[in-house]
Amino acid sequence: MAAAAHPAAGAAPARSNGNADMGAWLAVAAGTLGAMMATLDISIVNSALPTIQGEIGASGTEGTWIATSYLVAEIIIIPLCNWFEKLLGLRRFLLIAALLFTGFSVLCGNASDLTTMIIGRAGQGFTGGAMIPTAMTIIATRLPPHQQPIGTAMFGVTAILGPIIGPLLGGWLTEAFSWHYAFLINVPICGLLVVLLLVGLPRDEMRPELLKEADWLGLFGMALGLGCMTVVLEEGNREQWFSSRLIVELTILTVIGFGMVIVGQFTNEKPIIRLSLLFDRVFGSVVIMATMMGMVMYGTSFIIPQFLAALADYNALQAGKIVMISGFPAMALMFFAPVLMKWVDIRIAVGVGLLLLALSCFVDTSLTADAVGGDFVDSQLLRGAGTVLAFVFLNQAAISSVPVQYAGDASGLFNAARNIGGSLALAAIATVQEQRQWFHSRRLEETLSANSVRVQDWLAAQTQALGDPGAALRSLGGTIQREALVMTYNDMFWMLAVGIVCVTPLVLLLRPLPKNLSSGPMH
Questions:
Q1: Quick one: pLDDT at residue 513?
Q2: Span 2-214+272-435+491-509 CATH architecture
């Protein structure tokens, strides 16, 4: 399909104004299935991580690289996919990615040591990440404009539900069978994906001449910059940020890498990715909002299980079920997304979606130490509805705001922004949790005077109940830490709510979607 998407002269691909044929819809199904698998595997190991660490002999710090290596590799490859599509052809590129993803999944499923697991996870990230932006490219180049909303809604299901279902599926497979199946489940799915790709996408030609004119400076710079930046964000708090020589060196390499990308924009006629798209009023706004959405999507799916595990003693499977609640309104509204795209102004839809996300975070700012999973139901329902409205419309805006020949670049930037937002959220959460818990602990301690009659009475009662003054003091310390932790989680939800509110005015810069978008049925 790359031949159609990127003609030799670089002209826009021909695109029918009629209805897409069955082959086009099979291609869209293949793209969305691949994207679902890739987004699912970001978080599927989260629930199984403690079990995996124990069986392969990894410490807690080492075990985090099982998740980090996937995310780093995925963020690197996403913006580069458009160039690989042109070089290899879309069909060939996706078949290679699907087959390699299967191989790396089998490697992870049979890993017995940390090194093998990290190699397999990095390989999954590189090959799985290739299947995320290509799904949007297929929608933009294989479907006529009036049927794109249906394809966009299908892609939206994968992008939204993947990170949500991941922890639940991973926890269930680990509890019911073995952690190995969290990886091996990809084998039959990849088999179906390969069949859909072979049937749905036409043969296309390779373009080896692109190797001579490639923006090698930008390609290596993008890989260096994004890879090092992601590691800095993931490991910064654990390494005490810039007090660590490793973090300082990686930050310098990040700056050098992005500097190479910028130089490539001016020295090469066909840069590896067109950063100039970011200066477009509409597309630039979409990228900023997508970054903030990524922070909320990945941030809340991390915070809620952590809260329930620390304060309500939930296991991974129980916490996964609570995270999954946001998927119900997402799936219900997704069926109406094509109709909404036709009748609802994009500025209203995205604005309402972002405000619902802000409200969902605001609802969670009044948590207490007695909160359980049921206390997150309302906020999760709001979060699911808001995510659909904002994400699906922003996804369509990203496609519609650029010429069709730049759809691959736009897709790479849009999806990279969402994942980078997730990395920013996880880095911020780790830092905020450490600093704010210390702050709240000190403030709570300041309010408890040793001469207070109430404090003395409480300690006397605890001493009598526990039979040990030292145990009573430890109980008081534990209570202080528990309350400080609750206040810290409330702070994090506040920050996410404020962040969403701050980017909401950008909806005023969006342009209405093309009038030829339709909710017409698939044919």
A1: 66
A2: Up-down Bundle (1.20)
